[in-house]
Amino acid sequence: MHLKKLTIKGYKTYRDLTTIVDLHAGVNVLVGLNGSGKSNIFSAIRFALGGDGVSKEQQRRAMLHESQGQQVASAFVEVTFDNSDGKIPVDKAEVVLRRTITINTDVYEWNGKEVTKAEVDSWLEGAGISNKHNTYSIVENGKVTALTRMSDAKRLDLLKEVSGAHIYDERRAESLAVLETTRKKREHIAEVMDDIRGKLDRLDEEQKELQEARALSRERVAIESVIADREKRQCRERIKELEQQASAILADLGGEQGVMTDMSAEVGREKSALEELTKELTETSTRLRFLSKRREKLSTEHAEICGASEGRDEAVEKSTAEMEELRGRLERANEELDDVTTAFKGKKAQLQSIEEEQDSLRSELAVATRKREKLAVKKGSGPSYASVAERNEYLSEKVASKNQRLEEVEGLLGKQTAQLDEEQQEIDRIGAEIARLEAESQAYAGQNGDADIATTERNIADTQDEIRQKMKEINALREEEESFSRQRQELLEAVWRTAPRAVREGYTWLMESGIDGVHGLLIEHVDILEQYRLCAEVTGGLSLFNILVDDDKVGEECLSFIREKQVEIGKPLRITLTPLEQVRIINSDVSYPRGEVANILPLVDVIESPDWARCAVEQVWRRHVLVPDLEMGAKLADFHLDAVTEGGDTSTWRGVMKGGYTSPERYTRLRDWYHAEELEVDINRNRERIAEAEKQVQQLRTTERELQEHLVDLRCTAQAQLNAQSSRLRQVTEDREAVHRLENSLELAAKLKREYEAEREQLELDIIAIRAEMKTKKLPSGALTVAEAQQLEKLEEEIEEKGHRLTQITEAAGELADAIARLRDRESLLIGMQIPNLQKELKTVEMNCTEATIIWRERQRRRQWLAGELAEIEQELALREERRAELEESIVSKSKSVEDMEQEVAESERTILKLKESYNENQNEITDYEDKFKIADSKLDEIVAELSGSVERIEDETKKIGEGVTIRQLQRRAMECRGELEKYPLVNNKALEQFAQFDGQYKELLRSQEEMDQGQVAIDELIAKLDGEKDNNIIKSFAQVNEHFAATFRELVPGGTVKMRLLKRDPSPGLDEGEDEEEEEHHIGAAATVDEKYAGVSIEVMFAAGTTNMRRMHELSGSQKSVVAVALLFAILRSEQPPLYLLDEIDSALDAQYREAFARLISSVTNPNPLGHRPPPPAQVICSTCRPEICHISDRCYEVSLENRSSRVTLLSDFQRYFAQA
Prior knowledge:
Residues 189-371, 406-494, 676-713, 739-812, 870-932 form a coiled coil. InterPro entries: P-loop_NTPase (IPR027417), RecF/RecN/SMC_N (IPR003395), SMC (IPR024704), SMC_hinge (IPR010935), SMC_hinge_sf (IPR036277). Residues 516-637 form the SMC hinge domain. Belongs to the SMC family. With 1222 residues, this protein is an alpha+beta fold. Among the domains are: 2-135 and 1187-1221, Rossmann fold, CATH 3.40.50; 138-207 and 990-1064 and 1091-1137, Rossmann fold (3-Layer(aba) Sandwich), CATH 3.40.50; 403-462 and 686-775, Helix Hairpins, CATH 1.10.287.1700; 499-666, 2-Layer Sandwich (Alpha-Beta Plaits), CATH 3.30.70. 68% of the residues lie in helices and 10% in strands. A 6-stranded antiparallel sheet has the order 2-1-6-7-8-9. A 6-stranded mixed sheet has the order 10-24-25-3-26-27. Strand 19 and strand 20 form a beta hairpin. The radius of gyration is 67 Å and the shape is flat.
C-alpha cells in the first residue's frame, strides 16, 4: 500500500488545482526555495488523513488560500492510495480519500461517498496509518531540532507515547471516574437512608390517627348515602306524575299543531305561488322594457340604413362616369404615346442614315487628305530629310505611335462591341417582360370576381336566417325548461316542507360528500300506483326520507361526516340510515292470513322497487295490510299485522286506531315526488332537444364562419389582383423608361463604335502608306509630274466639296437630334407622369367604387336581418303584454287568499302558544326535580368513588340506620360527625401506603450499597492490572527503540555507539555495587510503577570507535545533536513500522558528512535488507530537502515553486542541473 496521487486546490498556498501523479512506492523528493510551499504539501497530506482539527471557523479560514485580500470559498485535498496488497480493509484496488472544507463545513469523502472522520480513522488504522498512535510518521520541519532540545523527562514522555501508554492512562482514568461516581452515590444513599428512617417513625404515629378518622368518615358517608337514596326515590315518583300531565298537554298540542301545519303548508304553497307570479311579472316587465329599448334601437338603425341606401344610385352613376372619363383620358394618352414612339423611331432611322453617310464622307475625306499630303511632300512642301536613314527613323517613330493608338482603338472598339451586345440583350429581356405583363393585364381585365362575392354574401345571409330561427327555437325550449324547473323545485320544496329542516340539511350535505355506497332516499326507489299512494304515505311517514346505504361501515362513515359537518357549520343535522346488508339479515318472513281473512292485500305487493332495495321496502311496509274497512282490520290483530284502508285510516295490532277522515291534501309527498320526476324527464328531454339544436347552430355557425372566411379570401384575392394589376402597370412604365435609357445608351455606343472603326481604318491606311514610303531608297526630288499636279488639284477640289457636304450633313444631323430629344422628352413625360397619374386616379376610383359596393351589400344584409328582428320583437311584445295583464289579475286574487289564510294561522298560533306555556311550566317543574334527582345520584356516586374498596363496611353502617329515622334526624347526626372529624384537620390519608413504600425503598437502598461495595473491589483490581500492563509495555518499547536507536546510529555514524538509559528517581537500597545496571533498569517490581520509579531517559553517545568515554546530549555539538536526533527519530519509526514516511527537511540540520549516510538510511526504508535481523516491511517515503544528497537515491523528484502567490509542483527530471543553477 502506498500513496499514488495527491490533488490540492485552494489549500494554503495552493490556489489552483495542483496534482502530483504517479508517486513512486519508494522515495519521492520535493525540492524548492524556502517559502515555495513544500511544507504545505505535508500539511495537506496530514489534513487529508484527518490530522488537523478544524472545529473552529478561524482554523478553517487559516487553511483557505488568500491572495490580494481575496479568500477562496472552499478547499480540498484528495489522496489516492494503491491498495493492491489489500492493507486498507476495503474491497478495492484503489482508494480515494478526499477532505473538503469551507468557512462553515468540513466533509470527508471515501471513494466518492460522504463518510465521518471516525470511519476514515478506522480504515486508516487498519492499514497502519493512525493520527493517534503513529504520530512520528509525519515529521514536520523543526521536529529534529525539538528532539535535540528535549529534556530527559520529556524523553520519558516520548517513550510512553511510543509505547501507547496513553491507552492505559485513558482506561485507568475511566476506572477512577467510575470509583468517584460510586463514592458520591454511596454518600447520597446514606443521606437518603437517614431521611427514610425519620419518615418511617413519623408515619407510624399518623397511621393511628388515620384509623380513628376513617371510622367517623364511614358513619358520615353512610348517613349521607341514606339521605341521598331517599331523596332520589321521592324525585322519581314526582317526575312520573308530571310526565303524565305533559303527555296529555302534548296530545292537545300535537292535534293543534297538525292543523296549523296543514294551514301553514297551504299558506306556504300559496305564498310560493304568489312569489312565482310576482317573479314572473317582474321578469315579464323587465323583458318588455328590454324589448322596447331594443325595438327603438333596431328601428333607428334600420332607418339610418334605409336613408343611406337612397343616394346610392346617384353615387354609383357619378363614380361610373368618373371612371369612363379617366379611361378615355388614359386611352388618349396611350395613343399619343404610340404616335410619339412611331415618330421617334422614324427620326431615329433618319439620323442613323445621315450618320452613316457622315462617317462615309469622313473616311473619303481622310483618304483624299492623305493623298494630298503625300503629293505635297513630294512637291517639297512636306518635311525635308538629310538622308533616307533620317527619314526612316522619323517614319519608324510615327509608325510606332500609330500602332500604339491602333491597339488602344481596337481595345475600345472591343469594349463598345461587348457593351452593345449586353445592352441589346437587356433591351430584348425587358421587351419580353413588357409583353408578359401586358398579357397578364389583358387576362385580368377579362376576369370578374364580383359574381362569386355576391353569391357568397347571399349564402351568408341565408345561413344567418337559419341561425336566427334555430336560436328562436332554443330560446323557446329554454323558457319551457325554466318553467318545468320552477314547477319541479316547487314540488320538491313542498315534499321537504313535510320533513324537519335538519333532515333536509343532513341529506343535502351527505349527498355532496361523495361517499361511496350511499343510494339516496327510500322515496327515490319506490313506485306506487296512484290509488295506493295515500295509504302507503300514511303508513310510511318519515321513513320515506330514510337514506339507503350498503352496510354499517358506510353508515358509520356517513354519521362521522354528519357529526363533523354539524360542528363545522354550527347547525343541527339529522339523517336516518337504512343499512341494506343488515336489513336483509334481520328481516323476517311475514305470513299473511289470505285464507282466513278475505279481501286483504299486503302493502308490499303494490309497491315496486329495485331488487337491491326490496329489503328496505319490506322493513317499512311488510306488516301493513290493505283492507276494505277497519272492521276487517281488527281480525288482523291476532296475526300481529296493521291494517290500512285506501282512504288512509289505520288500525294497529295493539288496538290503536286513527283516521275517520284523512284529507288527501295533507299527504302529497308521493304525488309531488312522482310529478317532480315526470318534470325531470321533460327537462331532460328539453335539454336533449336544446343540445341537438345548439349542435345544429354550431354547425351553421361553422358554415357561416367558413363562408365569411371564403368571402374574405375572395375580397383579398380581388384586392390582390387589383394591386397586382397596378404593380404590373407600374412595372411596364418602369420597363419602358429603362428601354428608352438603354436605347439612348445603345445609340451613343454605336456612334462611338463607328468612330472607332473609322479611326482604326484610317490608322491602318496610314501605317501601310508610311511603311511603303520607308521602302523607297531615295528621297523625293521636290518636283511633280503633270499627272501628279492634276491629281493634286482634283484632290483639293474634292476635299473642299466633301468638306462642304460634311458640314451640311452635320447641320441636318443636329436638327434631327434636337427633334429626337423633344420626342424623347414628350415620351418620358407621358410614361413617367401623365399615364401613371391617370392609372393611379383610375385605380383609386375603382377601389372606392368596390368599397362602396361592399358597404352597400353589408347594409342590405343588415337591413334584412333588422327587419326580421323587428317583426319578431313586435310579436313577442304583444304576447308579453297579454301575459302581464293575466299575471296582474292572478296576483291580486292570490294576495287576498293569502291574507285570509294568514289570519287563520295566527289564531291557531295563539292557541298553540298557550299550550306551549303550560307545557313549559310542566317541563320546568320536571327539570327542577330532575336536577334534585341528579344531585342525589351524584352524591351517591361521590360516596361510592370516595370509599371504593370499603363498600361492605359502608353497608354495615347503613344497616344500622332504621327506616323509622327521619331525614332531619339523619342530617343532624351527619353534622355531629363532621364536627368530630374537624379534630383531625391534618390527617394523612396515605400514611399506610407511604409507610409500605418507604420501607421498600429502604431495603432496596441496602441492596444497592452492597452491590457498590462489590464493584469497588473489582475496579481496584482492574486499575492494578492496567498499571502492570502499562509498565511492561513501556519497558518493552524502551528495549525495542534502544535496539533500533543503536542500529540506526551505526548506519549514520560508522563505528559510533549510542544507548539510552532509564534514570531512577531513588537508588534501589537492595542493589549491589557489582550488579549490572542495565538489567536493573529493565526490571520493574510490583511495589512501584514506571512513573514512580523513573524520572527520565538519558542518551549517551560515542562518535569514534577508538574513544571510551560516552558523552551526554548537552556535551555534543549542534551537528552531533542533529545526528543523534535523526537516529532517535528513525528508531521510533522503525519500531512503529508505518507504511508511509513524510519527512519535511529533516536533513537541513545535518552536516555534509552525515547527509549521504542519511540518504542511505532513507533508501534502506524503502528497500530493507532481507538478510537483516527482523527486517521491517518496505515503506514509501515522501521527503523535502534543499540538498542534493537525497535526490541521488530518489525514485521521483519534484520541484515546488511559487508564482503569483500560488504554489505549483512539476516533475524534475535533472536535479543536478537544478542544484547547479540554485
